[in-house]
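If your schedule permits, I should be very grateful for your opinion on a structural question. I have a record of one protein: its chain in single-letter code and its fold written as discrete structure tokens. Kindly check, if you would, that the fold set down in the tokens agrees with what the sequence suggests. I remain grateful for any guidance, and I place the record below:

***
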Amino acid sequence: MNGLDWTVLIAYFGVMTAIGVWSHKRVDTVSDFFTAGGRMPWWLSGISHHMSGYSAVLFTAYAGIAYTYGVTSYVTFALPIAIGILLGAKLFAPRLNRLRSRLHMASPLEYLKDRYNVPTQQALAWSGILLKIVDVGAKWAAIATLLSVFTGITLTQGILITGGITAVYCTIGGLWADALTELGQFLIQLLAGVAMLVVTLNKISDLGGLSKALDSPKLHGHEHGFAGPYVTVFFIAYLFIKLFEYNGGMWNQAQRYMATGSAKEATRSALLSAGLWFVWPVILFIPMWLSPLLVTAEKPDGSDTYGLMAEQLLPHGLLGLVVVGFFSHTMAMCSSDANAIAAVFTRDVAPVLSRAARAWNTRTGLIAGRVTTVAFLGLSMAVATQVDSPTFKDIITVVIKWVAGLMGPIAIPFILGLMRPFRRSGPTAALGSWGAGLLAFFLVNYHLDFSQRTDVALEYQVAAPMAVSLVLYILIGLVKPENTPERDRIIETLNTEDDGTAATVPTQVGSGGA
């Protein structure tokens, strides 16, 4: 990078900070800070929902998968997310919106204390917060890895730069700042992604054209949708995981639906996000699929290939724009996670821990939310410095194994608890499925009997915790129904359409109810 590239990068940071300062004027209450007061347009919510699902992991870990396996990277990453969000547009998005519009809640988990009980709410909250600290730490490490390729700065320095800038704008402006910066980041990434695609295709034409390139031995097998450890079972498991995760299971996407004005607008937001997920990743992945023809990876996992391509193919100025694109995705995801975690801690955890927190006024609640945001970002940045340690192994291990494996037990009681067919499942089902899912994750990844340890295939490492949690959540609800009139009233509130008719739901699991 030269002076022109640095100018582009510094200008980007300046604009993001300015948006945060401007958004500060729109934040007067806790609801404004965490759910934009329900005033966010559906199209802004949809773009924000889409952008908050990316990070620099796409340009590192998944670039490595694309370098090694080709089309598999899209089939096992973007496609399951797109399908999951599309399915959730009618199933989950409207119900999540009604948490704010009808139950007047500012945190996705606030309803759990009434839907189940306080211990269930706290178990899901604490485990989700700890998982997100590790998850966001992996994202900081990914962007710092890319930054080191271009600038030579250390991993720690890169983490401090990106985390510090993100802390400024998302702490000042809350969800409004997140969404508006994500809109700007989307436009920047649109320019950067198209530029990279055009430059790559132009380079391939110099080598004999796309048809000749596709026949190259270096791309042998790259056309297959499933390859290596990413097989059909993995795809199915990942689809179920992303169905829950990207429809609010890890809370930040739930906030985007809660922020819209109505359930109908939340559905439109989800449909826009799903459409972008079907199309936009293809544009980003094509250069990665062709990368074996243009660069040779220096890292064994190929995670440095996209950075090497950008450095070798792009002119200065445009290179800076692509680097800004890397930051765009990571800062979008991490800032949205920070806001979601702050909402959960401030609204759900702190009132249980402290009697004083239950009496916070508007000003004190806002201060607590901002302090929590900074604290979460600081902890995740500390974890980022350890992401390549033996405990976490590497970025892709954290993202796929840890996050995908642990997300299910946390998300299932939260998401399915919104729906009428699962009203029989109460606190016992929620806590039992959560605990068993976490135990399943430990057993398939870190066996109790290490003397006889055998490797478990990746697809089962990812799928087992969610499968265990899902089955137990349903079975315990059937064997020990715990629905009460109060719990049923909450569910009916979330499942009634705006015109008063019953919301469309799948066939009920069992019978019963008050």
Remarks:
- The first helix runs from residue 3 to 24.
- The CA atoms of residues 145 and 323 lie 12 Å apart.
- Residues 504-514 have pLDDT under 50 and may be disordered.
- The domain at 3-354+362-388 is CATH 1.20.1730.10 (Sodium/glucose cotransporter).
